[in-house]
Amino acid sequence: MASLLGRFCRKLVVPGSAHGARMVSTTSSCGSETVKSLNLYSAINQALHIALETDPRSYVFGEDVGFGGVFRCTTGLAERFGKNRVFNTPLCEQGIVGFGIGLAAMGNRAVVEIQFADYIYPAFDQIVNEAAKFRYRSGNQFNCGGLTIRAPYGAVGHGGHYHSQSPEAFFCHVPGIKVVIPRSPREAKGLLLSSIRDPNPVVFFEPKWLYRQAVEEVPEHDYMIPLSEAEVIREGNDITLVGWGAQLTVMEQACLDAEKEGISCELIDLKTLLPWDKETVEASVKKTGRLLISHEAPVTGGFGAEISATILERCFLKLEAPVSRVCGLDTPFPLVFEPFYMPTKNKILDAIKSTVNY
Amino acid sequence: MALSRLSSRSKGISRPLSAAFSRSISTDTTPITIETSLPFTAHLCDPPSRSVESSTQELLSFFRTMALMRRMEIAADSLYKAKLIRGFCHLYDGQEAVAIGMEAAITKKDAIITAYRDHCIFLGRGGSLYEVFAELMGRQDGCSKGKGGSMHFYKKDSSFYGGHGIVGAQVPLGCGIAFAQKYSKEEAVTFAMYGDGAANQGQLFEALNISALWDLPSILVCENNHYGMGTAEWRAAKSPSYYKRGDYVPGLKVDGMDAFAVKQACKFAKEHALKNGPIILEMDTYRYHGHSMSDPGSTYRTRDEISGVRQERDPIERIKKLVLSHDLATEKELKDMEKEIRKEVDDAIAKAKDCPMPEPSELFTNVYVKGFGTESFGADRKEVKAALP
C-alpha cells in the first residue's frame, strides 16, 4: 500500500534548499491555494489552531503553553479557545503525559507539549508502558490514539547537554507508538495535523533550530501529509541519502557540493521514523546501490542502525559499498565541542565520496 | 527590621573602625545578636528562636560575600549579552541570602546539591571567581574543565555536588548522599535544594518518603522565588506552602531574604536532621532576573513588583543597614569595599578571558572511566572500539 501511494505522492522538487522549495500539495487542495510565508513555529501554530477548531474535543496543554510557549508555538490558542482547552500544567512530565493518556482514552485528542525533548525521560515510562500498549493489552477495548506528544528536539548551536538531545531512537524501539519528524514549515503543518488525527499515539519531534530559521510558503487551508510515507526530495543516481528533520538541510548542502564533483545524490526525507517507509528507501537503494544515513543522535544505537540493517537485508546484492552512517559522536551532547560532535556537511561530503569511490 | 538594642557598645569596647576596615573584613569577633525580621512558621516541629548569634566579623563578611555574589551575577549578565557566555545562564541575584546563610551554619563536610542556579552556591562553597568565569565561558580552567557550563558547577573537596539541569532530578540524588553520610557516621547532613517549580515533581516525594522511612539526614530546601520560570506558584501548586508539602516530614518557612534567618534555620535543620531525619526548609526569596538570560522576567510579573522587592527586602541592603547601625563601617568604607569587589570581579573576568578553550581531545574524555568503556577512532571518530577491563 505504501509503495502505491508512495509513487503517487513522490514529487519532484526544484533543486534548492529543502525548506525553501515549493512543492505541490498531494492531498485535498481544491481551487485556489493561498499560501503565506511562515516559519516553523508559525506553521505549527497554524496547525494547532486548525486542529482545535475542527475538533471541539481536542486540548493542548503542557508547561507554559498558555502564553504561547517558550517557542511561541501555542500563541493565541488560549485566547481563542479558552483556558479550559488550552492550559498550563505544573512542572511534571510524567504527570502530564499520563494525564494526556487518560484524556485520550476517553476519546479526546490530547496534544501534549514537552518543553524540550531532553525532558521527556520522566515521561518515558508512561509513553512506553502505557500509551504504546494500551490498545494491545485491553484487546482493543480502550486506546489512547488521540494522544500526540510534541517536543522540540535537536541541536541549536549552544544548547549543551540538556537542550540539544535527539531522543528519537529510544521511541523508535516501541511498537505501538508512531514517531514523526518534519523537515520544514510546510511539512510540519501537514504532518502535525496528520499526527493529531491519526488514531494512534504519536510522538512528534520538532527541530528547534528551524523554528525561526526555516521560512517557507505554507498553504493556509487544512491539509494533511500522510504518515509513514517517505519523500524523495532530490533525485539522483549515484548514492541515496536518508535523513530527517533539520539534518536534511545539512545533507542537501553536501549533495550540492557533491554534484560539483560529479556525484549525483538522491535525498530522501523519512518523515515518519516509526513505522518507516521501507519501500521507498529500498527502491532508491536498488537504483543507486549506495546508502548514507545521517542524524544528530549518537551513532551507536541510533535509528540509522535500523535503516542500515533493514536495507542490507533487502538490497544486499545491489549494494556497491557498505552503508555509511554520519552521525553524532558517542559522547553526551557537549557544550563547547558542539561543532566537533555534529555530523557536519564536510563529514557527510567525505562519506559520500568514500562510499562512491569504494 | 528589629535591631537588637543590646550590643557590644554597652560593654564599652571601642573598636578602631578604620583599622578594622583597612583589611576589608574585620577580624573582630565581638558577638552580636540579631533578630530575624519575621518569625519562623513551623510544621510539625517547634520553630527556632528569632535571636541569631552572630559576630561583627560575620556581619561584615556576609556583606562582602553577598556583594561579591551580586557583582558576579551582574557581570555574568553583561558577559552573556556580549556573547562570551553562551548557552543557558540562570542568575541568582536577589537570592544571595540563602547561599550565605546556609554556608554560615554548616561545614564543608555537609553536602549541598542544587539545580541550575548554582553560581553563588559554588562561590559560597569556596569556589573562586576565576573558576566561575572560566567555566561560564567554557574555558579549560573552569571548575568542570569547561565541559559543564553554567548549569554544572561542582566542587568535590567542599562536598558541593552541583549543578543539575533536569528539574527535580537532584533531590533523590541528595537523599542518596545523605544515606551515605549516615552510613559512614560522618555527622554531616545534605542540603538538597530545589525551586518552587520543581516542588511538583514526583521524584521529590519519592525521595522524601525514602528519607523519612530510613531517617536520613537530608534537608530539602525549597528556594521559593514564587515563579517556576514564568508560572506563578499559585498557578502551579494546589498548596504553595511548600514547607508543609512533606506531610509527615516537619518543615519550616523562612524569610529567604534575611541571611540571619536562613542561618538560624539551617543550623536548626542540621541539628534536627542528625537526630530525627528529614526536614523541609522553604526559603521565601526572590530573583531579580528572569528565569534565565533568555527571559526578560517582566512578562509574567510587573516591574513594580520587582522594584518593590528590591526596595523593601533586598538582602544586601538589609545587611548594609545592620552594618551601619552597628557602627561597624561607614557608608564610604562600604562603597570602597564595593569598588574593591568590582575590581576583583573584573580581574577574574580578564584572567578567564585569557584562558584557552579545552583541548578537542577532551570531547572524548570522561565519557567512561579512563581506559575502559568505548574509545572512538578514525578521522570522524566513527570507529568505536570497546576496551574491556
TrEMBL record, chain A:
Tell me the ranges covered by the Transketolase-like pyrimidine-binding domain, including all copies: 38-213
| InterPro entries per record | THDP-binding, Transketo_C/PFOR_II, Transketolase-like_Pyr-bd, Transketolase_C
Gene3D superfamilies linked to this entry = 3.40.50.920, 3.40.50.970
One Pfam family recorded for the sequence: Transketolase_C
Say which enzyme class the record assigns: oxidoreductase
GO cellular component, as recorded: mitochondrial matrix
Query: For this protein, what is any one GO molecular function term?
Result: branched-chain 2-oxo acid dehydrogenase activity
Enzymatic reactions:
N(6)-[(R)-lipoyl]-L-lysyl-[protein] + 3-methyl-2-oxobutanoate + H(+) = N(6)-[(R)-S(8)-2-methylpropanoyldihydrolipoyl]-L-lysyl-[protein] + CO2
Q: Which UniProt keywords apply?
A: Mitochondrion, Oxidoreductase, Transit peptide
Q: In terms of domain of life, where is this protein from? A: Eukaryota
Residue ranges crossing the lipid bilayer per the database entry: none
First-listed, main subcellular location of the protein, grouped into a coarse class: mitochondrion
Q: Which E.C. number(s) belong to this protein?
A: 1.2.4.4
- Tell where it localizes: Mitochondrion matrix
According to its UniProt record, which cofactors does this protein need?
Answer: thiamine diphosphate
Any single GO BP term? response to nutrient
Assembly with partners or alone? Heterotetramer of alpha and beta chains.
Any idea what this protein is called?
3-methyl-2-oxobutanoate dehydrogenase (2-methylpropanoyl-transferring)
Automatic annotation (TrEMBL), chain B:
| Co-factor requirement | thiamine diphosphate
Write out the entry's keywords from A to Z. Oxidoreductase, Pyruvate, Thiamine pyrophosphate
On the tree of life, the source organism's domain of life is Eukaryota
Q: Which Gene3D superfamilies match?
A: 3.40.50.970
Q: What does this protein do?
A: The pyruvate dehydrogenase complex catalyzes the overall conversion of pyruvate to acetyl-CoA and CO(2). It contains multiple copies of three enzymatic components: pyruvate dehydrogenase (E1), dihydrolipoamide acetyltransferase (E2) and lipoamide dehydrogenase (E3).
Q: Can you state the subunit structure given in the record?
A: Tetramer of 2 alpha and 2 beta subunits.
What protein name is recorded for this chain?
Answer: Pyruvate dehydrogenase E1 component subunit alpha
Question: Per the UniProt entry, what species is this protein from, by scientific name?
Answer: Brassica carinata
